[in-house]
Amino acid sequence: MVGMTQASRRSSRALVLAVVALAIAVALALSFPAWRGQLPYGWSLAASYLVTWGPLVIALIAGFAFWWRFLRFRAVDLVVGLGIGLVARAVGIIAQYASTGRMPSAGVMLGGISGTYVFTTVIAPVVLAPLIEEPFFRGLLQGSLSRGIRPWPALIVTSVAFALVHTIADGWSTTLIVTMLAFGLLAGYAVLRTKRLGPAIIGHAVFNGLAALITWPW
Known about the structure:
Keywords: Membrane, Transmembrane, Transmembrane helix. The chain crosses the membrane at residues 45-68, 75-98, 110-132, 152-169, 175-192, 197-216. This is CAAX prenyl protease 2/Lysostaphin resistance protein A-like domain-containing protein. This protein has 218 residues and is mostly helical. The chain has one domain (2-215). It has helices at residues 2-35, 41-62, 64-67, 76-100, 115-148, 151-170, 174-194, 198-215. Helix 1 packs antiparallel against helix 2 and helix 1 (2-35) runs antiparallel to helix 5. The N and C termini lie far apart (61 Å).
């Protein structure tokens, strides 16, 4: 009984951490456009990541004792993650074509590919985002919600939150919210079935990596 009580308390603390961090990140993201113009470009770029990921990282550190057990990988996670990334990106391409009549395409790069472009197109979304967002959303938030409500409602709530946060940070569009919701549901289901973050982290890297590949100015 004592062990169950401790587990319940740990889960409740994790949920509070996740909700508070998410609320702060959303508030900062909503206020960011009002003051980003006052900063030099480099500082503005750094601040855009800090306001979005900073609260999540703090919550992950504070709630490490809860979500660390999900941070496991197996060889099969590479295959599952590849499937998640491919399917979710395909949903995004179909959604964009249905909405705009155009397929995703590369942009025009003037003056060559800069280090900043590589960071914002590859390093941040393909490397950093999976390592921050998956432990937070699928580990801390979905994991703690699953202890308070049934796993499927927890998966759906987490996926919706994931999609909404990205539309707030990146700008509202039907294509974006459909794509992010599709990825969130697939990643959440993989974590629900395997009890591991491995498939979701690999899937997130593949999902964002495909976007970088499609839009890269070859």
